[in-house]
Design goal:
The chain starts with a helix and ends in a 45-residue tail after the last helix. By secondary structure, it is mainly α. The chain is globular, with a radius of gyration of 24 Å. The protein is 68% helix and 0% strand.
Length: 507
């Protein structure tokens, strides 16, 4: 069925035995590029945690045998860990700039900057930890455009039936990168030295920049290497709908910020993003510290554990994408999305409640993997996907808002963790007191998923009319709506050229 669909979209006659994979082989390069970019972006955020545990920072500054390079207090370490997220909170600023200048050009400059700053991380750390904080805040402020770029990329490069899959795989590699970053940070630090982890990440950024310049222009229509048959699969939009230009958006297609901020579901997604990252970031930042301080787990084991967490999310997202496709066919659009949004938050809240009473390390890992897998479903038909499905054009800017709020856990929870769990090591019952304080910390984290449940239900109750699938993505539409039309009221429609220039309802 899909092969017939691809042939119907092509403007060139194809041989009957022309396989669909041959037609779409080139766009796999841009698809791979965006997924790897999302993963590398996460590597540089979460690797420093295990790099600190693996030799970057001394565990005990008064111990002459400690081979760590820097003597930083717990509060300084928490500040360094959360530094990236201080800047990432304001990502909507760079997304606003990128929506005017063009996401493609902006992201290329950001990749070069990130390559340089990441490769120089060891030298910057040798000067002062506060220099690390300053450079990471600046890099995060700029890197916010990469998240918006993902939505712009999907809108321009993905074919209709590949859109949800590309969003899911992009999210899967991003979350997998969290675990991979923690894993590589620990293993490389223990093996050849923590500095080489940052050299590796800087090199990856530079290689992605080279790939982007050569193979990934702004739109498929500007691609030098794509065949005419494959290019014919992409709809040709009436130039009048995009201001007479097929180049990057210049702001003419977007809804004003004032109208976007009046949407009730935006605030529900802000709470959901905050709650999601409360779970995700704690998996890779505070929980490894908990396992190190309370259970005295070696750094190598912690690195493998965080790798399992990231793998669990990534693979669950891949597996659950099939489940999502089945459920999506059985249920109406909105009930399907609500199930895939609310159930993971219930799962996370229950595990946070159970975790303090578990003393067996393998069982703790199993619970955390179950939590990670639940979080993976949030990239399959959950609020991240719904944001795109309600308004494709403005999805990058809407995402920049709620994802900005979603970065607050990245710096607030490490500080809360230090405040709630810091214990005087000289007291007689140190182990018991320290463990009880960690238990209270986990009970506090339970509030995050519960707030997400309440916010989403309330937003739908107050504004049910906002929760509608955009007509351009509705397969039941007879006339294909233009995804570039922002305010779609049933009157604005454009023709997408299909076979012989006629409207193609099958698209």
């Amino acid at each position: 069925e899909y092969k017939s669909y691809l042939r119907s979209r092509s403007t060139l006659p194809l041989h009957p035995n022309h396989h669909s994979l041959i037609i779409m082989k080139f766009r796999l390069i841009p698809y791979t590029f965006i997924t790897i970019l999302m993963m590398v972006e996460q590597l540089t955020r979460f690797g420093p945690v295990t790099a600190m545990l693996g030799g970057m920072v001394k565990r005990n500054c008064s111990d002459p045998t400690d081979e760590g390079d820097f003597c930083w207090s717990d509060k300084t370490q928490a500040l360094v860990i959360g530094a990236f997220f201080y800047g990432f909170v304001f990502q909507f600023l760079i997304v606003g700039v990128a929506s005017r200048l063009g996401f493609t050009k902006t992201v290329r400059v950001i990749m070069l900057f990130s390559a340089a700053v990441t490769a120089l991380y060891p030298q910057i750390a040798a000067v002062s930890p506060y220099f690390i904080v300053a450079t990471q805040i600046l890099r995060a402020l700029l890197s916010g455009a990469i998240i918006g770029y993902q939505f712009e990329f999907v809108r321009k490069w993905s074919l209709p039936k590949e859109r949800n899959y590309l969003l899911s795989i992009g999210g899967a590699t991003a979350v997998f990168g969290m675990g991979l970053g923690s894993f590589l940070g620990g293993v490389i630090s223990e093996g050849i030295g923590w500095e080489y982890y940052f050299y590796l990440c800087g090199l990856l950024y530079f290689l992605l920049y080279v790939v982007a310049v050569i193979f990934v222009p702004d739109t498929p229509h500007q691609c030098m290497f794509m065949s005419k048959a494959e290019l014919g699969l992409y709809p040709t939009i009436d130039e009048g709908a995009t201001g007479g230009s097929k180049l990057e958006n210049t702001g003419k297609e977007y809804t004003g910020w004032g109208k976007l901020l009046r949407r009730a579901y935006l605030y529900a997604f802000c709470v959901a993003a905050f709650s999601f990252n409360t779970v995700a970031y704690n998996l890779y930042t505070t929980i490894p510290i908990y396992l190190d301080k309370v259970f005295h787990i070696p750094t190598t084991v912690l690195s493998w554990s965080t790798f399992f967490f990231g793998s669990a999310i990534g693979f669950s997202m891949m597996a659950l994408s099939k489940v999502f496709q089945v459920v999506d066919k059985k249920l109406p659009w909105l009930p399907c999305r609500m199930i895939f949004t609310l159930v993971p938050f219930v799962n996370a809240a229950m595990i946070f409640l159970i975790l303090p009473s578990v003393n067996y390390f393998p069982l703790i890992v199993i619970l955390l993997v179950a939590m990670a897998m639940g979080m993976g479903t949030l990239f399959n038909g959950s609020f991240i996907t719904v944001n795109y499905e309600i308004d494709p054009v403005n999805s990058s800017r809407m995402n920049s808002i709620f994802n900005s709020v979603g970065q607050i856990p990245g710096f607030i929870w490490p500080l809360i963790q230090v405040f709630m769990t810091e214990t005087d090591e000289t007291i007689s019952d140190y182990e018991e007191v320290h463990r009880s304080r960690w238990n209270r910390y986990f009970y506090t984290m339970t509030t995050g998923p519960l707030l997400a449940l309440a916010a989403i239900i309330l937003a739908y109750y107050l504004r049910p009319e906002e929760w509608k699938l955009h007509p351009s993505l509705d397969a039941t539409s007879v006339v294909v709506a233009n995804p570039n039309v922002v305010e779609f009221d049933g009157a604005e429609e454009v023709k997408i050229k299909g076979d012989k220039g006629k409207e193609n309802p099958a698209a």
